[in-house]
Amino acid sequence: MTNHWIDLKNTDLALIIGGNPAENHPMSFKWLTKAREERGARIIHVDPRFTRTSAKADIYAKLRSGTDIAFIGGIINYLLQNELYNKEYVLNYTNAATLVNPGYKFEDGLFSGYNAEKRKYKQETWDFQKDPDGKVLKDPTLKNPLCVLNIMKKHYERYDIDTVCRVTGTPKEVYRQVLEEVAKTAAKDKSMTIMYAMGTTQHTVGSQNVRSYAILQLLLGNIGIPGGGINAMRGESNVQGSTDFGLLFHIIPGYINTPKTTPDYVNLAAYLNKEVPKTSFWANKDKFFISYLKAMWGDAATPENEFAYHYLPKYDAARNYSHIALFEAMAKGDIKGLMAWGQNPVVAGPNANNEAKAMENLDWLCVVELWETETAAFWKRPGADPRNIKTEVFLLPACASYEKQGSISNSGRWIQWRWKGVDPVGEARADLDIIYQLGKRLKELYKDSTRPEDAPIRDLTWDYGQGEECDIEMVAREISGYTVADKKPVKNFTKLAADGSTACGCWVMSGMIDETGKNLAQRRDNKDDSPVGNYLNWAYAWPVNRRILYNRASADLTGKPWSQEKADIWWDPLAVDKATGAVGKWVGYDVPDFKVTCGPNAVDGVFDGKKPFIMRPDGLGGLFAAMNDGPLPEHYEPWDTPLEVNPFSGQKLNPVVKVWRPDEQGTPDKFPIVATTYRVSEHWQAGAMTRNIPWLAELFPEMYVEIGEDLAREKGIKNGDEVIVASARGEIKCYAMVTKRFQAFEIDGKTVHQVGLPWHFGFQGYATGEIANKLTPHIGDGNSMIPEYKAFLVNIRRAG
Ligand SMILES: Nc1nc2c(c(=O)[nH]1)N[C@H]1C(S)=C(S)[C@@H](COP(=O)(O)OP(=O)(O)OC[C@H]3O[C@@H](n4cnc5c(=O)[nH]c(N)nc54)[C@H](O)[C@@H]3O)O[C@H]1N2
Ligand SMILES: Nc1nc2c(c(=O)[nH]1)N[C@H]1C(S)=C(S)[C@@H](COP(=O)(O)OP(=O)(O)OC[C@H]3O[C@@H](n4cnc5c(=O)[nH]c(N)nc54)[C@H](O)[C@@H]3O)O[C@H]1N2
Ligand SMILES: [Mo]
To answer: Which segments constitute the Molybdopterin dinucleotide-binding domain (predicted)?
Structure first.
């Protein structure tokens, strides 16, 4: 989230798209309800299915799964054509006026630089024009056809109401209401929040879906202000924390790129040259990176050995190490061992039949869990013959959250400490202790090794107390950072250095332990006198306790709030900065996302007082910004699509997605029905956490497919009938639940039905049912590789 949960109370309009927060993020509704009661806020819900969120919305706009870019592209077009965007904000705070390379082109669904064989773009023509000093060129009059705003105008011209609704299936009169409501929030005293989750991301165009929201919010001037922003409602309770800590393969902690095997990463100097920009706050990345290396390898990281840069694993950029790629590698027999640590891919992974089958190639599998999940039991799953599966399976019992302490980070980036409630049962241990012991044993094995490849383990700092259990406070101090000489905590990441004198495990979290050693994540002071509700003394938010990102943009060019209604920080020319004695300071209800003493008319180092987006090279919000699949979001159809042609262009599928299994594509002749998967309140994820709890199992005991009344009638299916749902990947048997929540779409002149399946069921636990993911494809987004769980094709027939 750029903003945070409580901040939802400050909104005038919530555009909820690709999420069902009333059921999956219920606390958000507490604050939306407040916004509604106290300021008359409105709610729009955009979803293929009428959910409990829709029931609470002022406008429910249905759309066919996989068409969000068309939906948002139409809003962008409406704002641009009718000049309804926030002009002052757009002209000054975004790259609208910047001139694009004359070589840039967009033709029939393809941007310039496409290589069809590699399914990849060369992005050089998506660059900006620059003067000889390297500064980008602009046309503040917005007349030049190559300026970003005009390129966007042209690009989205095709997204007229008729074409959009022909693709999305949204009724036109409803869509017009959406356009009007959204446009109202371009006013200086209004804000709209966009709340999204997996209905947005789990698509071959998932990342560009999010980009389209960012563009919309920048056009409306809704980024950086209370009640605004782009708010990813995150999933697992600590999924925010795990990405902050570098869970993904392409980043190390703090969103810093992992080195690659290519020549431009050959040594530390090359890495820094490639990764550290000269402008923007990222100019400090060398300090974060080297402090991270010091935290990892301590005294063994020296200037002479490039701070142990070569101990970091480097990844082959031609390959991919995300979920789908790993299971494809298992299927080929390239991966021999798997640690499934608090995850259950046999139920949660796409194309689940194939993923379970791929696991049969493993020599060993280690599952660290609360339960014996479907993954732990994959060798005895229905249809498998244990005699032919040679995988050795270990199941290590783990503590549940109540049985251990530690921090978890919520979607609003608040790092909150939780204390142990009860002692663990049986042999269960905290995950931290399990990995601590594993690390200790590995270090013991390698302690006398002189092989260079063992040095990263031999030299790893792993001193977290003397006991069996890992001293978690010591881990927290290492994460937050300290000066190497005296081990004293650093104030925050602004005190980190690139010369090896500081160590810091994760720069974004730096400052969580303050200079006196106090753990700020443990703060529980719920007093807040400000109108916005930032609660600065409750827990710790990254970065440096800031609650609204890019809050410099909540003030105008002169440093005054755009409106008192939406004030977060502002420039006070008379305030004195205690630390430096300087007169003039950013003050307000939040921690300024700016150098506090750099005024609106000043330039100070990488800061320019009129440019709020300090993490961007030009300090401006990126309306036009390169991603793998283009600098502007464009509508492409899902891998399985009911359409013969894409009404927007000759490109049906996102041109950069990797096709793993070309013969497993669903086509409308065999599979005419669009399907999606979703969650229910009563179950959690792959279901181990809820199908093993008797009362929850009883509340929601069976697997079903939700079908609209029209389709049920057409197929002769009644509520409660047993049916077979089939896709190009597999078939499952379950019950039919006939509801009014799915209604047919009129798409490009034909009727298209959509159905939905919960994905919580499996063959273990009290409540069992078939795995929805047997139906989903092994294909992912062009940037993130997140699987396309939300839009695929099926057919349905009565069982027997
Ligand atoms: N009770 C409960 N709460 C949970 C979870 C749980 O399992 N149970 N899981 C947690 C986790 S890990 C996560 S990631 C979040 C997920 O939170 P959500 O994203 O809210 O979860 P889903 O129910 O999977 O999907 C949300 C909605 O997306 C809609 N949708 C499908 N396709 C599209 C599309 O193409 N466009 C749009 N606009 N909408 C579409 C679906 O109809 C569905 O209503 O929930 C978290 N909260
Ligand atoms: N079709 C379809 N598939 C989906 C999705 C979808 O929307 N549709 N959503 C996707 C999403 S967003 C997600 S996040 C994934 C989730 O996929 P998974 O992460 O595989 O699913 P979970 O059931 O959340 O698995 C977490 C496991 O951790 C265990 N656990 C709980 N607490 C602890 C602990 O403290 N320590 C350890 N070691 N284990 C613990 C639980 O018992 C549980 O089995 O599924 C994805 N799969
Ligand atoms: Mo998730």
So the answer is: 675-792
